[in-house]
Amino acid sequence: MAYLLGYDLTEYDIDIIDCLTNYRGVKPYHLAVMKYGVNYTNSQEKTIYKYLRKLLDQKLLAKYKLQDGSEGSMYYLTSKGYELAKDLFNIEEGKKGEGWINEDGCTSYGDFPYELFSPPLEQAPHHLSSIDFLFKLRSINTTFIEHRINLYSAVTYGNSENKFRFRPDAEIRLENNRIYAIEIDRGSENHEQLCKKFRTYRHYYETAKQSGLNVRHAGIIFIVEDKRKKHGMKRRWKNICAALFKEMGDYHKDVNLIMTTVSDTSETILFEINRKNYEQRFINKLSTFLKKKGNQDVNLYLINDPDNDYKQIITTNMAGNNSFYVTVYITSQTFEANVYSKFMNVYRQINAIKNQEAVKGLEFKGFRKATIYGNEIPYLINDIGPYELDEEFNNVFREFNDNVQYYRVDDVLV
């Protein structure tokens, strides 16, 4: 036996305690993924149970049998186990910590009261869904995706008279410090509750801006259950998307809304990692094509958005001797709101486009949309009308559905 701080602990035990300190509550298969990788064996999972029993016997762990048809149990640290973890990992008293987890573990622990640290038993399925998502990130072999749970993503802001609480379910951080808020959506929130969620985001961003801080997320990713793919995913997306455009003000232009399932997590995050590269390679390829054409009937423009540094790629294409089309080039996830924001930017500037020298005096025939995607063709909302958005939004949604061409990224950028 190896005694440490009065307990029978091996390195294996400490690894389990570390995982529970990082994620608050997990199921045994999460621990198996952490210890052995996503392709763990049945024998390795049985080993996990052996060590869990040992820690349960020492009153360092507790388990909660899941309710409402959910299988298995959630394991978490007892108050005694959490106090031991603070000693094991040298968590300073009163330390806030940032909680980012990378390939080396947690970079900065926080010291929380046990009542706040312990997982929410009444919301265990919701909590475990967020853990499912975070552990799914480990299947991305090209890089480790930094992430943190809601204990650390939560922010209290305002003043002594008016305090507000902002709390995404988790956050991930990609290169160039691009942080994405994660929202676990189990379909229980109605439209008004979704609107309230986005009002909270907008209020947080506005308050931070007034304080001179830049805390906007690169995106907000809604994670839905896998069964949604067969039952109501498109309907749910329309509901969420409408709430965003109703409540986020102009923040919808540079805080992208994405929806995906737990099983599609890897593909979704990989697309976000490579998005800028995809777009730049496409610009280069398009420019080469235009040079070969001699720019005789196609003209390339990069429209600057005055509110951010994004440049929208468009071309004007001759439709006949006296008319032209505008082709808008967009990169999109399967469910993504930013395609409408980008199209709106072009839609609002059509008069300036008509005055370009190459097409001046010609009849504008309409828009074409060239959409570059990953594994699945993007879903387009054909009618946002039932949610009573501003007429401009309604026009953009209707217009975007016409003359759309899809190009799989692997086929376009070979």
From TrEMBL:
Superkingdom, natural source: Bacteria
Matches recorded under InterPro entries: Replic_Relax, WH_DNA-bd_sf
Protein's recorded name: Replication-relaxation
One Pfam family here: Replic_Relax
Origin species: Metabacillus malikii
